[in-house]
Amino acid sequence: MTFLEALILGIIQGLTEFLPVSSSGHLVIFEKILGIEGGTMYFNVMVHLATLAAVCIALWSEVLALVKKPFCRMTGMLIIATVPAVAAGLLLNDIFEEVNASGVTVGFGLLVTGAVLLISSALKPGNNGINEVKWHHAIVAGIAQAIAIVPGISRSGMTISADLALKMNKELAVKFAFLMSVPVILGGFVLETMQLVSSGAGEMDWLPVLAGMLSAGISGYFAIKFFIKTVMKGKLKWFAYYAFAVAGLVLADQLFFGVFFDRLF
Hints:
single chain; mainly alpha; 11 helices
């Protein structure tokens, strides 16, 4: 992977991690377009780590409040919401790595993302604050996040849609969704780091990785700020239309052309 390719992928990761259009799906698409094959799993994890930093900076007051009062209700709900994604990651990690590399689910995943966003945009807004969020609500949000492990299905899109369906107010829905990503990203980073160390980390070219992390962190920060405003204005349907459009292009290539992706049939 060249410096320029890493820079491009970092920007794509930062923007799409928080905009509900699937960062994993877009990374697969652009890796195919740029002709990058293999050796990107740890790069993807590192740029995810950069977006984790973006979350902590953009939601600094919320993160600081959790650090000061770690045994509050928000912390408990976040822990419960993390369980499904952790279980899915540990049990199905190898399967998802193969699926991610092939890109076979990207088009279908984006269709799912678009459909979920379209449905959630039609929901009547709720007014529930954190004190009204119950443990089973957190489990539902966690399952939504676990489903988003599949490339093409957006984590932010699934979790925010679940939060809105659970009648959380818009501000809590978006912030809870972003905070849910923190332990999952951190856990993935630790897991992939252990795997890299065991296989030999000395062969990695760190300059492109650092370039990707920097561009992902900066673009991720602005994506968070933009998306919070978008959710507050109730404009999720525009992301649904975008997901449908990209899904159409990907599926057309998978079904008929095979230029960037392997033919499905």
